[in-house]
Amino acid sequence: MSVKIITVAKALPKHTRNTKDIIPYLNLWLADQEDRFRRKVIKIFENAGVDKRYSIMDAESVFSKTSFEEKNDIYEKESIILAESCLKKSLDKAGLKADEIDFLITVSCTGIMIPSLDAYLINRLQMRQDVVRLPVTEMGCAAGVSGIIYAKNFLKANPGKRAAVVAVESPTATFQLDDYSMVNVVSAAIFGDGAAAVILSSHENEKGPEVVDEAMYHFYDAEKMMGFKLRNSGLQMILDKSVPETIAEHFPNIVHPFLEKNGKSIEDIDHLIFHPGGKKIVQTVESLFGGLGKNIDDTKEILRLYGNMSSVTVLYVLENFLERDLAAGDLGLMLSFGPGFSAQRVLLKW
C-alpha cells in the first residue's frame, strides 16, 4: 500500500502589486528616515528576487496604522475564503467531493484563529462529521511539508483513505509600521500572501507521485533564529541573518543520510522541490547543488512571481511538477526550513 499526492491547487488574494509599484509607498513610509537608509531599503526590495506579490490587504492598508485586532480580523476573514477556494479547486482536479476526505490538516502561522481554519471548512463544504482534523499553527515555512508528512503517516496507517492539507498564509499582515529594523525591511521585501491545498490518497487506483519516505531534522540551540514575537502591534518577525550560513553548514546532514537510508544519493534525484526562503537561501542552495548539475529553477520562479508565502510556497513549487508529464520512476526531493530551527524532507517517486 502506497500513499500518493494526487492534486495540488492554489488560491491567491485579490490584492496584488509589482515590486516597482511598492516603491512610492516605501518612500512615504521612509519619509522621516535618512536618505542613505531610504536608498538601502529600496535597493533591498529591488534586489530581493521578487517581482510581484499578492496580499489580503491593499497597499494603503499595509502602510497605514492598524491595530493587531484590525489586521487579525482581515486575516481571519480572508483566510477562510482562500482556504475554501483552494480546497474546492484541489477536489475538482481530483474529481472528488468534500465528504470523501477522511483527514483534514490546516496550516497557518501568520494570524490567530480559534476555532482554526479546519472547523470553517468542515461547515462550509459540509464535510463528514467524523473527519479527523489537525491544525498546524506554529511551524512557519516548514509547515507545508510538515502537513504532508502528517498526512502520509495517517494514510499509511489507514489504507483506502484520503487526506487534505490546506495551507494559508498572510505575512504582509505582520508588517510592523513603526519598526525600521533590517529584519522588518527584509521580511517585507521577500514575503507575500497565498494559499494552497494538497490531496493525498492511500487508494490503490489513484494516480500521482508516491511519498516514499519523509523525515524531520532539528537544529540544536537555534530556537531564536526564526519566528514571531507577539507584540501589541501584532506578530513581529524574527529572522537571524545567519540562517543561510547555518543551513549550508547542516546541509550534508540534512540531505545525504536521508537519501542513503532509501538507497539513493543526490545524483539519483531528478527534481528538487525546495522552499524559496529568500534570495540568499536560494543562492546558498544553488551553490551546494550547482556542481552536481541540479537546478532549483522552479523554486526561483515561484519566489519571483509570488514571494515567500511561508508554508504555502513549496506547495506552489510542487504544483509546477505535478502539472508536467514526468517520466515514471523519476525521483523528487521536497525540502523546507522553518522555526525551531528545523528542516522537513519528503522523497517522491513518480
Can you describe this structure?
This protein folds into two domains: 198 residues, Thiolase/Chalcone synthase (Peroxisomal Thiolase, Chain A, domain 1, 3-Layer(aba) Sandwich); 140 residues, Thiolase/Chalcone synthase (Peroxisomal Thiolase, Chain A, domain 1), CATH 3.40.47.10. The protein starts with a strand and ends with a strand. The protein has eleven helices and 13 strands. The protein is α/β, with parallel strands linked by helices. A hairpin with a 2-residue loop joins strand 9 and strand 10. The model has no long low-confidence stretch (mean pLDDT 93).
How many distinct beta strands?
Answer: 13
- One letter per element, helices H and strands E, the order comes to EEHHEHHEHEHEHEEEEHEHHHEE
Kindly report the name of the CATH homologous superfamily of the largest domain.
Thiolase/Chalcone synthase
Question: How many distinct domains?
Answer: 2
Structural class: alpha/beta
The averaged pLDDT comes out at 93
Strand order of the largest sheet: 1-7-6-4-5
Please tell me what the overall shape is. globular
Count of runs of 4 or more consecutive helical residues: 11
Strand and helix layout:
Elements: E1 4-11, E2 15-18, H1 19-29, H2 35-46, E3 52-55, H3 59-62, H4 68-94, E4 103-107, H5 117-124, E5 132-136, H6 143-157, E6 162-169, H7 182-190, E7 194-201, E8 210-218, E9 226-231, E10 234-239, H8 243-261, E11 271-274, H9 279-289, H10 297-306, H11 313-322, E12 331-338, E13 342-349
Parallel strand pairs: 4-5, 4-6, 11-12
Antiparallel strand pairs: 1-7, 2-3, 6-7, 8-13, 9-10, 12-13
